[in-house]
């Protein structure tokens, strides 16, 4: 009976520790995502680039009347350059329904978004960010998003 109680206690402690680590990872990843989009709003890539892995890849799925079209696989340099050189209206990506899954070394963040140029809604869709943990720091390794101009309510 003592052995069963010890095993149950050990399982409880292990599950509790895993839940705390997941919560800590989720908070860190959510903070990174908010910093990325704050940097984009401010045209300040110094708030974005540190969170990107050197080999980060990006893709967009455009949804139009002719069907879906996947963009070529690109690095983040084009996005970062565009953000840094934006002198026009603010790029404001507003996210909702952020969901984060993590095993402590790999994580996924999924969110709805609406993208505004200044105060005008440009498009909406889904963002999926893939993260890896390197030297105790989360880095974005892959981003894919869908884009549509209709049904953005």
Terminal CA distance: 58 Å
In the CATH hierarchy, what is the class? Alpha Beta
Strand order of the largest sheet: 2-1-6-5-4-3
Q: Which percent range describes the beta-strand content?
A: 35-45%
Q: Mind telling me the C-alpha Rg?
A: 19 Å
The percent of residues in helical segments reads 25-40%
Give the tally of structural domains.
1
Structural class: alpha+beta
Describe the structure using short key phrases.
153 residues, alpha+beta, 6-stranded mixed sheet, 2 helices
Give me the secondary-structure topology:
Blueprint: H1 2-41, E1 52-64, E2 67-70, H2 77-84, E3 91-102, E4 106-117, E5 120-134, E6 137-147
Parallel strand pairs: 1-6
Antiparallel strand pairs: 1-2, 3-4, 4-5, 5-6
Description of the structure:
This protein is α+β, with helices and mostly antiparallel strands. The chain has a single domain, classed as Roll (Nuclear Transport Factor 2, Chain: A). 31% of the residues lie in helices and 44% in strands. The protein has helices spanning 2-41, 77-84; strands at 52-64, 67-70, 91-102, 106-117, 120-134, 137-147. It has a six-stranded mixed sheet with strand order 2-1-6-5-4-3, with helices on one face. Mean pLDDT is 87; it is low at 5-18.
Quick summary:
This protein is of the alpha+beta class and 153 residues long. Helix content is 31%, strand content 44%.
């Amino acid at each position: 009976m003592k052995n069963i109680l010890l095993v149950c206690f050990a399982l409880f402690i292990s599950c509790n520790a895993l839940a705390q680590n997941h919560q800590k990872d989720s908070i860190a990843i959510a903070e990174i995502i908010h910093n990325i989009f704050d940097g984009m709003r401010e045209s300040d890539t110094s708030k974005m680039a540190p969170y990107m892995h050197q080999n980060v890849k990006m893709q967009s799925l455009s949804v139009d009347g002719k069907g879906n079209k996947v963009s070529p696989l690109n690095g983040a340099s084009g996005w970062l350059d565009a953000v840094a050189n934006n002198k026009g209206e603010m790029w404001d990506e507003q996210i909702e329904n952020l969901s984060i899954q993590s095993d402590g070394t790999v994580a996924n963040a999924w969110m709805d978004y609406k993208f505004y140029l200044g105060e005008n809604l440009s498009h909406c869709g889904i963002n999926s960010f893939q993260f890896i943990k390197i030297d105790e720091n989360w880095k974005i390794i892959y981003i894919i998003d869908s884009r549509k101009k209709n049904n953005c309510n």
